[in-house]
Amino acid sequence: MKPKNQSGRPAKDDGRPLDRRQFERIELASTAFAVDANGNELGRVVEISGGGFLLKPATPFARISLAMGARLVITIVEPANVKQTSLNVEVRRVLSDSIGLRFV
To answer: What residues make up the domain containing 82?
Structure first.
């Protein structure tokens, strides 16, 4: 039987949670931010992977818009590269200082 950590999830032998990520996370060196379909800034993208990204919310409005389980279209804006990419995402994790989104 696999050991479990304090949350009851499977853990490594030392009690740390298993990393079930399919894709490596990459911290962004340049500034990229996310806006919703109405152009409201949601926050800064700080990490990205093949499965989704991590966002630092810009405002209380962003936190409300990005409730757990919400599905929406977000546009990632990279001012330095003058690039914009629209993506369908789902909110998968809400923490005190960040929000995890999954590509759908």
So the answer is: 26-103
